[in-house]
Amino acid sequence: MNPILQVNQLKTSFFTSSGEVEAVRGVSFELQSGEILGIVGESGCGKSVTVKSIMNIIKPPGRVVAGEIKYKDEDLLNLSKHRIREIKGNDIAMIFQDPMTSLNPVLTIGSQLMETMKAHTKLSKSEREQRAIALLRAVQINSPELRLKQYPHEFSGGMRQRVVIAIALANDPDILIADEPTTALDVTIQDQILKLLKDLQKKQSKSVILITHDLGVVAQMCQRVLVMYGGLIVESGTREDIFYAPKHPYTVGLLNAMPKLDSKARLEAIPGSPPALVNPPKGCPFASRCQQAMKICLNHLPHFYEDHEGHKARCWLLDPQVKKMKGYEDQ
Ligand code: SF4
Ligand code: MG
Q1: Is CATH 3.30.230.10 the classification given to domain 5-91+173-330?
Q2: Which residue of 104, 114, 210, 281 shows the fewest CB atoms closer than 10 Å?
Q3: Does ligand 1 have an atom closer than 6 angstroms to the CB of 315?
Q4: Which residues, other chains included, contact 32 with Cβ-Cβ below 8 Å and sequence gap of 6+?
Q5: ipTM for the assembly
Q6: Centre of ligand 1 from the C-alpha of residue 289, in Å
Q7: Does the C-beta of 318 come closer than 6 Å to ligand 1?
Q8: pLDDT tens across 92-135, in order?
Q9: What kind of membrane protein is this, topologically (predicted)?
Q10: Does 61 sit behind a cis peptide bond, omega within 30 degrees of 0 on the bond before it?
């Protein structure tokens, strides 16, 4: 295994008038080179804040309060502004949910693509144009020479998201971070965009972090999965671990909420709602919604227990003593 990105004990908070909102409360994970890692959970669980912290785009009143984010050998939290801009332009690129907010309506697609290259490469104007054409072709946009001269409003929603992906690829980054890249699109288009992303990841050997609230998307796309809840990773494992042998009651709830035939799950189906993260609960953040909650869950944050190599869950049910007490076989 060869991690290209390592996040260690990341904590990000928002300092609001009602107090410190602990949006990310100590998150650690690795992104392996060439994999698609899914981060799944309801909105407000800390997924977007985690990747925005990686991209260094947390705005006040928010800030990263602790942790380490290592890209190759550099800690992204301790670099000069200049070096961070370089890395963000060349090595790590982000694809946002809504293409309309990431495209400039008054600039042509071509100038937006070439602008990204201009800021970070030494290509000549005609080389940039050639590369822009090649990028539009790579994201399967027909007649790229003509399309370069058009404005975002001349593209459909799905086409605009392809353009956003092309811009993210402009400087050939190692890592692509996609935050709900298909949420704003209808189902058929969503499927095409996901296929395109997977195809690019394979052909261009990118490492991808894919954020979604949709387990169907995870099943289709990801080799490994992090399940987030209440600003914490509550379970991590391979896709098979998560879908066939989930250990955390929250993950089980998400899976039960998935319609069997149609995979377009909305995750709100678990009764109750996630905890507020101003003064987050001392114990397990899921306790107020968990049917298996015990006394210990209310007052003590569970450890992250390893079920087997690579598969972990943050739940007291995996504690050897609790297992014994409950009469489980300790394997
Ligand atoms: Fe439920 Fe307790 Fe496990 Fe939390 S630690 S998920 S409350 S059993
Ligand atoms: Mg989000």
Answers
A1: no
A2: 104
A3: yes
A4: 1, 2, 3, 4, 207, 224
A5: 0.95
A6: 9
A7: no
A8: 999 987 777 789 999 999 999 999 898 888 899 999 999 999 99
A9: Peripheral membrane protein
A10: yes
Ligand 2 centroid – CA 98 distance (Å): 11
Nearest-angstrom CA–CA distance, 84 and 221 = 29
- Ligand 1 centroid to 98 CA: how many Å? 35
Best residue among 270, 299, 317, 318 to mutate for probing ligand 1's pocket (most ligand atoms within 8 Å of CB) is 317
> In whole angstroms, how large is the CA radius of gyration of the chain?
21
Q: Relative to the alpha carbon of 246, which ligand is closest?
A: 1
pTM: 0.92
Please work out whether the CB of residue 299 comes within 6 Å of at least one atom of ligand 1: no
Residues 130, 144: contact at Cβ < 8 Å?
A: no
Is the CB of residue 297 below 6 angstroms from any atom belonging to ligand 1?
yes
pLDDT digits (tens, 9 = 90+) for 159-216: 999 999 999 999 999 999 999 988 878 888 889 999 999 999 999 989 999 999 889 9
Q: How far is the CA of 51 from the centre of ligand 2 (A)?
A: 9
Residues 6+ apart with CB under 8 A from 271: 289
Ligand 1 lined by 234 (C-beta under 6 Å): no
Average of per-residue pLDDT values in the chain: 91
Q: CB–CB of 15/245 below 8 Å?
A: no
Which mutation among 254, 292, 303 tests ligand 1's pocket best, with the greatest number of atoms within 8 A of CB? Answer: 292
Domain range list for the chain: 5-91+173-330
pLDDT digits (tens, 9 = 90+) for 33-78: 999 999 999 888 999 999 999 999 999 999 999 999 999 989 999 9
Task: Give the tens place of pLDDT for each residue, 274-290.
Answer: 888 888 889 999 999 99
| Beta carbons of 230 and 275 less than 8 angstroms apart | yes
